[in-house]
Design goal:
Blueprint (H helix, E strand, L loop, with lengths): L5 E3 L2 E4 L2 E2 H8 L3 E5 H14 L5 E6 L6 H9 L3 E4 L2 H9 L7 E3 L6 H10 L3 E4 L2 H14 L4 E6 L25 H13 L3 E7 L10 H19 L6 E3 L16 H12 L5 E6 L1 H4 L3 E13 L2 E6 L8 H5 L5 E3 L8 E6 L8 E8 L7 E5 L19 E5 L5 E5 L4 H12 L2
Helix pairs in contact: 5-6, 6-7, 8-9
Bound molecules: ligand LLP.
Length: 420
């Protein structure tokens, strides 16, 4: 689905809500999410996979807002968490433990203890040592066998940006073949754990079906091996990664992902798990930021705006390109425009040479498709407080879902030691 934000009566907005009005009411930088779009994305996944038993999970890292987790929980999705922090968010939002999968390549002992104690749906193990650690904890803590999954590293290139590729043999994630053999025998011999799943996650923003086909081939081969060895497998988790269109370019439909994944699943007889982040929430969001200054630069205008890499890191970190639109519709000439933030780093750009009209100080820009990995990757560098978040409901109501941070919020922890 394309972005829901469009021009009506000269104003960029959605469902009769003008983004310019939101910027004046809540200030900028401001993340705005259109909830019906999240709903539509979720419905599209469920429909595409409806002829195979599939559980759709939300990958909390994409956008960890508590209200969002609570709302998704009411729609009975599962949740993929990768830290005690994300697990705690899910618990606070009311997610039942049996709908949480806990992945992550570097879980600490404290995190594993919390995961075991919480009796989660399954804990995904990414190394032999981690399998040993969970068994030790499970033994010490008693109780029934802990459901675990093994994350396979199938040595497949996701054909996406190298920084978001996770399933090549040299990558840190998952178990390569020698580790898989060892981890498999370990968990099968230990009554404290029960091998209920296999997992892969190849990377993010994937727009080619080959990685899913090749990766799943390997996972299905491992599943057969595990089943023959007596593992009570119930789930194959094909991870997340479905790509979205950032620049308006055509990308595969969710049905294409289903066509690549489902036929491979059929012979296994186990259920499919998906854990999607970007696909569910990415297109639903935009970031509003205000132009502070317009500086002349050779062959381009340079707009300095109030949100930068601390608000939206993707362009600085991956060279990601998001569409940028002025919230006031403009029919004049477009100029190549660099949109740069206030942070003291040369890489602090939100867009480079993007076609935009002449921008006056005070103009508001919308950076599209920023519902995923926007707010969740924000930082406090240069002591910038985090932005506010609002969403637009199915009834067209605007609800704040996280207030803007203050400098006092930032200083709270420092002050404890400062005043001591
Ligand atoms: N499952 C696991 C184990 C993951 O590590 C991830 C994302 C997902 C699921 C969800 O992937 P998605 O459906 O969102 O592609 N910050 C980067 C993306 C990093 C993704 C990390 N893992 C970005 O802004 O592009």
């Amino acid at each position: 689905m394309a972005t829901p934000f469009d021009y009506a009566d000269g104003q960029l907005g959605v469902d009769g809500v003008s983004l310019a009005d939101l910027a004046s009411e809540f200030g900028t930088p401001l993340y705005v999410y259109h909830r019906p779009t999240i709903h539509a994305q979720l419905a599209a996944v469920r429909e595409a996979f409806d002829d195979y038993p599939t559980r759709v999970c939300y990958s909390v890292k994409a956008n960890s807002n508590l209200r969002l987790i609570k709302w998704l929980n009411a729609r009975e999705v599962g949740f993929d968490v990768v830290s005690a922090g994300e697990l705690t968010r899910a618990v606070i939002a009311g997610v039942p433990a049996e709908r949480v999968v806990f992945a992550g390549v570097g879980k600490t002992e404290a995190e594993l203890r919390q995961a075991v104690a919480s009796k989660l749906w399954m804990i995904t193990l990414e190394s032999v040592e981690e399998a040993e650690a969970v068994t030790r904890l499970a033994e010490a803590m008693g109780g029934s066998a802990v459901p675990v999954a093994l994350r396979i590293n199938p040595d497949v290139d996701a054909l996406t940006h190298p920084h978001i590729t996770t399933g090549r043999g040299m990558d840190k994630f998952g178990l390569i073949p020698a580790e898989f053999e060892a981890a498999l025998s370990w968990v099968l011999e230990r009554p404290e754990v029960e091998l209920v799943g296999l997992h892969m996650h190849l990377g993010s923003q994937i727009t080619d079906m080959r990685p899913y086909e090749e990766g799943l081939q390997e996972v299905v081969r491992c599943a057969k091996q595990a089943q023959e060895a007596g593992a009570p497998l119930k789930w194959i988790n094909a991870g997340g990664g479905f790509g979205i269109s950032y620049g308006g370019e055509s990308v595969p439909a969710v049905a294409d992902f289903a066509a690549a994944i489902v036929p491979q699943m059929r012979p296994t007889g186990v259920e499919l798990v998906l854990e999607l982040g970007r696909f569910l929430v990415g297109p639903a969001g935009c970031l509003l930021t205000t132009v502070l200054y317009n500086k002349p630069r050779p062959a381009r205008q340079l707009a300095i705006v109030d949100g930068g890499m601390t608000t939206l890191l993707r362009p600085a970190l991956y060279g990601a390109e998001h569409r940028v639109l002025p919230v006031e519709e403009h029919h004049g000439a477009l100029e190549p425009t660099d949109v740069a933030g206030p942070i003291c780093e040369s890489t602090d750009y939100l867009a480079r040479r993007h076609p935009l009209p002449r921008l006056e100080s005070g103009a508001t820009l919308a950076i599209l498709d920023t519902g995923a990995y926007g707010m969740s990757m924000a930082s406090h560098y240069n002591s910038h407080p985090g932005p506010a978040e609002v969403w637009i409901t199915e009834d067209g109501l605007v609800e704040p879902i996280r207030r803007r941070e203050t400098i006092e919020d930032l200083l709270t922890i420092d002050m404890e030691a400062f005043e001591a």
